[in-house]
Amino acid sequence: MDTREKTLASAHTLVVKVGSAVLTTAEGLHLSVLYNLVEQLARLVRSGRRVCLVSSGAVAAGRTALPDRGRSVEGISGKQALAAIGQGCLMREYEHAFAAQGLLCAQVLLTRDDLRSRTRFLNARNTFMNLLDWGVVPIVNENDTVAVQELKFGDNDQLASLLLNLVEGDLYINLTSAAGVMAANPESAAPGESIPYLECIDDIAELDIESLCGAKTSVGTGGMRSKLMAARRAAQLGVPTLILPGRRPDILDAAFAGEKVGTWVRPAEQAVSRRKYWMAYQSEPQGSILVDEGAARALEEKGGSLLPGGIRAVEGSFEPGALVRVVCGDHHIGVGLTNYSSEDLERIKGLRRLEVAAILGNAHYPEVIHRDNLLINAAV
Q1: How far from the centroid of its chain's Cα atoms is residue 148's Cα?
Q2: Which one of 142, 276, 283, 293 is separated from 97 by 20 to 30 angstroms, measured CA to CA?
Q3: CA 178 vs CA 15, 67, 71, 118: distances in Å
């Protein structure tokens, strides 16, 4: 039995994400796909597993519910209104489908602010744990109706990767319209075969993601690039990802029965802490700190902290405590929480500790970013 088979056999808490391109057609919700998905999830629950479903499809469902207007709706407010209509349509079908399996489901709508606040994060965790303990399947979506740009996850792939930390998931399954990660762009004349295995960081980093993945689907917001970014995040947490063709009937049954379908993304050998994971992905970076090669080596090879002397430039405007990128030339090193504002960093960049004290006084931090507040190779 290989690692994939062992992981699938032992996985206890699953986060399953299904996209709009799987769940919807030009006419509306693809009900046969939805009901077949629920049947498979029900079998997983009855086998003793805990399942959390992240489901897209609300905007697409709302668009078809307004046949005279929905297809011409544009702009954020219009899509938020469609989501308000479509979320009810989507949940009604899920409730009927799970009821037919003798199970309950629960709707959970989140914005990024719900996970950014540590108190709200813990409250949400308690809610999810109760639902999962009761055998209820939480159905999660971004709260598109009220989310503004700075509070949005971007797409449900990223929401699902953050949910893994919230529910302490040990397997991430992403159901997509493709057969997996393809060896060539599926929109090309000869797309080739899907890639069966990817190493968590190195293989994904070496892929020409832009040429392989092509454009987003017409009804979704993500695309394969977003799915690979989410897989990288999951891998850092020590969680493997299985990317599967979501419209194939009984695809989950086939995967858990041992069929080598889709693409398996192996987890990192050494997982980051859940605290550092939350720190790195709870918000978008607000700026960048450009460092020299010596500082880059100290951070990546020696596990050091970032000191003022290694900083060459600062981009953006931010306050102390902000999440920022750390960059060396064209190379993205990671993200971390800065102890200084962008204004103060402009004053002390490239300086030694005594020189910093002469400018800022003795009440200053020795590190710009402490190593405990830095995630190397962050997928942002």
Answers
A1: 18
A2: 142
A3: 19, 28, 25, 36
